[in-house]
């Protein structure tokens, strides 16, 4: 199964649903000749509903629909227009990751509870190890019961070593230990798993700030990448989450997990639209390899069933 | 939760206040705003559309438009329709004669099943039950350990046969163990996956068959988007869900998914979980919830919470003191502690009528840190000083400030405000005489007035 097939399989429900409705919409606009203006309004309203149902959000949906409406002049197919608009939104948010100047590359993984941070860290460690890096995992989730054990299982599977502390220890101290260990062992990559925290919990957010300070002190310019892990089923609240985590942890990219469910993950469009935050990876399954680099073209294609 | 949605509703209603007569155009504008607010709160699109249609039908009725207070009529229509959306939810668990009563926890990955299992066990224990919990999640690494840790905190028994990795056998074993050990409730925590997974569904069906649960609780993440309806619907179709537990409701998620699940799937919300502590689980009441959402306050829940943390004897003693005007800093500290036990200040404030809007005034918001600082100051006083605040002179103030890590000005402010409060209490005590039965309400008020 190719990487693309897997993404498509993961998104197939999404695609089928939307594409079917979309087909009906486009056919509708072709069949009904008569009153062209009202047909167009119906079609655009339908398009907005589709985007809303995919969690794209009110403001992003409206803008996309408005842009499509403004450009819809007879010949161009509605699909092409929508596809182009979605790609434009996603492309505008994209930017390359920061390269470390000296010392190990530090990647911090943050998010609210239950989005799949630990799993993502396991998968990333595996991939980067296979890509030739020498990663070290830091278990800074010292809060959730058995979180470290869960991470240990992933680390063993990926064959990567783990720096851990007892439950309830200061996460910033574990991070310090891990970075020191990485330097001593000559590692080029440190992956930090943090405890899930709701963005409304001020004290926990401050703890994250502290972790970030420790990292910046130990490795200049770090963390090079701070990934916010979002569950594909998440709704508009993800925007608030992203805003808060950006402010406190300096999030530089999104990992969208659990895209193998029925969820459409349209929220990434809203995030790209409202916050210009790029999507780095998508998780489409439960095995170690099921984390793919995000590719806007493929995402949109798979979202609306290729080829159009 | 629901704060932002609540704020939006209040803004919409506020904009109506100036209108003497409602025109259909105004109603349309209001409906459009409400539609946006609901969509941004992740309420399912179909639910929103149906809701808007129903409200429009009622609100554009000529009788409403021509009535003397059209705004209030519209607010009432919205409120009634919202309550209708939530259905006839009484909250909690329905009574049963099943012994042991078996509760099956269902939900997607990461929705909070294991944590909720612990909270529910704790809640049941508080109700005088003796729950036994078992995890059938043999797939997620360390899931079984997590439940054991949570159960230990809740002080309930765990069924965990070492090496047994068949979920159905584990569940059935727990039921047998409960029968022989005399536990009257068995909570079965299950593996979470994505519902398209037929294998998981088959496993759940097998577990259900093996243990014959009375309750099948679906744990839904308050932050879920439009997909919530479909996943809940799928679980309901295959297994028959009897209630929803809304988890992670302490975030600022607008929880629209909850509205959708209830109205589309037709299953009532049984509990709402908010917070990291095991105590943070409450039975859900639709009418109170909607009132809180529309900024009308929820005094009933507030009183219930106060009753849960305040000992009747303490209340009487305090009442007596207030009447005599003998309130001391010690009593004041007790009140603060009680207030803290009632949960996060934010959520308490939200229950007060009219406070919904005021909460937004960030500067005036009494924050938990301030409460802690006051507690620290009182803690740095000698018992004598606590009982007789008037002996605290300049040098004592300095010592108290040093001891509590605050400034002398902070101590001054505390004492001044305490003095005012004492005077007020004395007046109130004299005025009302013995008619101060609702002690919890009085207690709650004082720390707020001190905050200003």
Quick rundown:
With 308 residues, chain A is an alpha/beta fold. Chain A is built from eleven helices and eight strands.
Shape of chain A: elongated
The stretches of 5 or more residues of chain B where confidence is low (pLDDT under 50) are 354-364, 433-452
Query: Structural class, from helix and strand content of chain A?
Result: alpha/beta
CATH class of the largest domain in chain B: Alpha Beta
The most extensive contact between chains is: A-B, 43 and 41 residues
Q: What is the CATH homology-level superfamily of the largest domain in chain B?
A: P-loop containing nucleotide triphosphate hydrolases
Please specify the SSE layout and strand pairing.
The complex is a heterodimer of chains A (308) and B (452).
Chain A lengths: L2 H29 L4 H18 L4 H14 L6 H16 L11 E6 L6 H14 L4 E6 L6 H12 L3 E2 L7 H14 L4 E6 L7 H17 L6 E7 L5 H13 L3 E5 L9 H9 L3 E5 L7 E3 L2 H8 L5
Helix pairs in contact in A: 1-2, 1-11, 2-3, 3-4, 4-10, 4-11, 5-6, 7-8, 9-10
Chain B lengths: L2 H14 L7 H17 L4 H15 L2 H4 L4 H17 L14 E7 L5 H14 L4 E5 L7 H12 L2 E2 L8 H15 L3 E5 L8 H14 L3 E7 L6 H12 L3 E5 L8 H10 L3 E5 L7 E3 L2 H8 L5 H11 L2 H13 L4 H13 L3 H7 L3 H4 L9 H12 L3 H5 L6 H11 L3 H25 L6 H13 L1
Parallel strand pairs in B: 1-4, 1-5, 2-3, 2-4, 5-6, 6-7
Antiparallel strand pairs in B: 7-8
List the defining traits of the structure above.
heterodimer; A: 308 residues; alpha/beta; eight-stranded mixed beta sheet; 8 strands; 53% helix; B: 452 residues; Four Helix Bundle (Hemerythrin (Met), subunit A); Rossmann fold; 434 Repressor (Amino-terminal Domain); 3 domains; 22 helices; 9% strand; disordered C terminus
């Amino acid at each position: 199964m190719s990487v693309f097939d897997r993404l498509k399989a993961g998104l197939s429900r999404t695609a089928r649903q939307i594409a079917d409705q979309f087909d009906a919409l486009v056919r509708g606009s072709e069949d009904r000749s008569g009153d062209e203006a009202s047909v167009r309004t119906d079609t655009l309203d339908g398009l907005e509903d589709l985007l809303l149902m995919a969690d794209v959000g009110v403001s992003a949906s409206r803008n996309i629909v408005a842009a499509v409406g403004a450009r819809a002049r007879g010949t161009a197919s509605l699909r092409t227009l929508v596809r182009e608009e979605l790609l434009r939104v996603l492309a505008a948010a994209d930017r390359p990751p920061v390269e470390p100047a000296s010392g190990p590359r530090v990647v911090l993984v943050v998010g609210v509870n239950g989005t799949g941070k630990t799993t993502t860290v396991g998968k990333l460690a595996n991939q980067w190890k296979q890509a030739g890096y020498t990663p070290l995992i830091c278990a800074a989730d010292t809060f959730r019961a058995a979180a470290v054990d869960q991470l240990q299982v992933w680390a063993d599977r990926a064959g990567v070593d783990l720096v851990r502390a007892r439950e309830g220890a200061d996460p910033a101290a574990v991070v310090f230990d891990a970075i020191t260990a990485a330097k001593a062992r000559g590692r080029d990559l440190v992956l930090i798993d943090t405890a899930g925290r709701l963005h409304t919990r001020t004290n926990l957010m401050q703890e994250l700030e502290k972790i970030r300070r420790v990292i910046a002190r130990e490795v200049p310019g770090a963390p090079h990448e701070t990934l916010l892990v979002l569950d594909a089923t998440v709704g508009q609240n993800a925007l608030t989450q992203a805003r808060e985590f950006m402010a406190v942890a300096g999030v530089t990219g999104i990992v969208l997990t659990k895209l193998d469910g029925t969820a459409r993950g349209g929220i990434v469009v809203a995030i790209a639209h409202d916050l210009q935050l790029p999507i780095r990876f998508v998780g489409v399954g439960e095995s170690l390899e099921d984390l793919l680099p995000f590719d806007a073209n493929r995402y949109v294609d798979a979202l609306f069933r290729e080829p159009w | 939760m629901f704060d932002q949605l609540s704020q939006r509703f209040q803004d919409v209603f506020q904009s109506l206040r100036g209108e003497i007569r409602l025109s259909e155009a105004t109603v349309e504008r209001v409906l459009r705003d409400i539609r946006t607010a609901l969509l941004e709160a992740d309420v399912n699109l179909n639910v929103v559309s149906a809701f808007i249609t129903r409200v429009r039908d009622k609100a554009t009725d000529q009788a409403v438009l021509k009535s003397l207070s059209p705004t209030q009529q519209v607010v009432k229509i919205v409120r009634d329709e919202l309550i209708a959306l939530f259905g006839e939810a009484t909250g909690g668990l329905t009574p049963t004669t099943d012994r042991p009563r078996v509760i099956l926890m269902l939900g997607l990955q990461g929705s909070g099943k294991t944590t909720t299992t612990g909270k529910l066990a704790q809640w049941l224990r508080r109700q005088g039950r003796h729950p036994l919990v078992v995890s059938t999640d043999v797939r997620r690494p360390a899931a079984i350990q997590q439940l054991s840790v949570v159960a230990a905190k809740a002080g309930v028994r765990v069924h965990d046969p070492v090496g047994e990795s068949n979920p159905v056998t584990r569940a059935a074993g727990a039921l047998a163990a409960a029968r022989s050990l005399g536990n009257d409730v068995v909570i079965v925590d299950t593996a979470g996956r994505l519902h398209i997974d037929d294998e998981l569904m088959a496993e759940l069906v097998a577990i259900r068959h093996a243990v014959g649960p009375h309750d099948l609780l679906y744990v839904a993440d308050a932050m879920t988007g439009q997909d919530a309806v479909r996943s809940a619907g799928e679980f309901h179709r295959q297994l028959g869900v009897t209630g929803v537990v809304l988890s992670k409701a302490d975030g600022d998620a607008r929880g629209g998914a909850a509205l959708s699940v209830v109205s589309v799937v037709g299953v009532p919300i049984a509990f709402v979980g908010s917070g990291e502590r095991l105590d943070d689980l409450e039975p859900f009441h639709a009418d109170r919830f909607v009132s809180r959402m529309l900024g009308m306050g929820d005094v009933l829940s507030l009183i219930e919470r106060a009753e849960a943390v305040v000992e009747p004897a303490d209340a009487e003693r305090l009442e007596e003191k207030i009447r005599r005007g003998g309130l001391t800093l010690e009593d004041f500290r007790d009140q603060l502690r009680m207030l803290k036990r009632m949960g996060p200040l934010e959520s308490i404030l939200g229950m007060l009528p009219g406070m919904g809007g005021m909460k937004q005034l960030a500067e005036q918001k009494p924050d938990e840190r301030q409460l802690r600082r006051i507690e620290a100051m009182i803690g740095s006083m000698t018992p004598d000083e606590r009982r007789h605040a008037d002996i605290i002179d300049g040098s004592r103030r300095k010592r108290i400030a040093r001891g509590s890590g605050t400034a002398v000005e902070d101590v001054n402010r505390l004492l001044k405000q305490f003095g005012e409060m004492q005077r007020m209490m004395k007046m109130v005590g004299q005025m009302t005489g013995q008619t101060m039965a609702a002690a919890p309400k009085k207690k709650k008020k004082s720390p707020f007035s001190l905050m200003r």
